[in-house]
């Protein structure tokens, strides 16, 4: 009489687990990489520091000494460090009866969860963009605020919000474009930013897509030309935002000094181990990542509520 070796039995299941875990992951179309800059982390702890200078160069008279720049360090940025994991238990009976498809469906669920959870976390970051209980930038302010600290001038007049919030429309989008042109950098100088992406919840998807098209002003009987459509590179509809808000909308700028980021420490993976006394196997998936906002100038938010 031959002895059934559980190690051999579960070894036969492992390729099935890997296959279905991958199928589950691929079945999810992630949205957050279109909004967040995604990279693989190289440090145990992320450090991102803002520096401010003296802004405009001073006039140098003949034979006079050049005025030195007074560059100073700002404060460390803040971010969220997340470790997420989930597991399923695969029974000895299913493996013994060669129910590989049923075993695989469990792993497919894990793969979908591992790929969907980052989208939920990234949407949560934007959903809290105006909430003073969740400071997200170096000055202790939310991502979107009218009182961001301009490091070089120690002035709390940096703003990446409209002074009067308004629902998404052609007029409010024009107001955002005007505000971007006069936004200031860390040294207090105007940086003349341009819009790149319009990020909206699913509830605003149709309005956003109409605004992004070139042509005439929406709903106008005067044949007025529309001036905002050609400036946007992309409209990103994030349905995960609807769990937090159906009215917030954001414009991502061409600011190159950082912005919304997602930095992997460990990308989603799976592992399995036996529970010999229970005659089953536990399969687990997990990931570790840092996410947040390096610089508020990359995001201009509007909260109509």
From the structure above, extract its key features:
single chain, 305 residues, alpha+beta, four-stranded mixed β-sheet, 5 helices
In terms of topology, how is this protein built?
Layout: H1 6-26, E1 37-40, E2 49-52, E3 72-76, E4 79-91, H2 92-96, H3 100-127, E5 148-150, E6 155-158, H4 170-181, E7 195-200, H5 205-212, E8 234-237, E9 249-253, E10 260-275, E11 280-293, E12 299-302
Parallel strand pairs: 1-10, 7-8
Antiparallel strand pairs: 2-3, 4-11, 5-6, 7-9, 9-12, 10-11
Notes on the structure:
The model has no long low-confidence stretch (mean pLDDT 85). With 305 residues, this protein is of the alpha+beta class. It has a domain of 127 residues. It is built from five helices and twelve strands.
Round the Cα radius of gyration to an integer and report it. Answer: 25 Å
Strand content: 25-35%
Overall geometric form: globular
The number of distinct helices, counting runs of at least 4 residues, comes to 5
Helix content: 10-25%
* Whole-number mean pLDDT: 85
Q: Write the H/E string, N to C.
A: HEEEEHHEEHEHEEEEE
Could you give the distance between the termini? 73 Å
For the biggest β-sheet, the strand order reads 1-10-11-4
Alpha-beta content class: alpha+beta
| pLDDT < 50 runs, ≥5 residues | none
Say how many strands there are: 12
User: What does the largest sheet look like?
Assistant: 4 strands, mixed
What can be said about this structure in brief?
By secondary structure, the chain is α+β, with helices and mostly antiparallel strands. It is 24% helix and 27% strand. The termini are far apart.
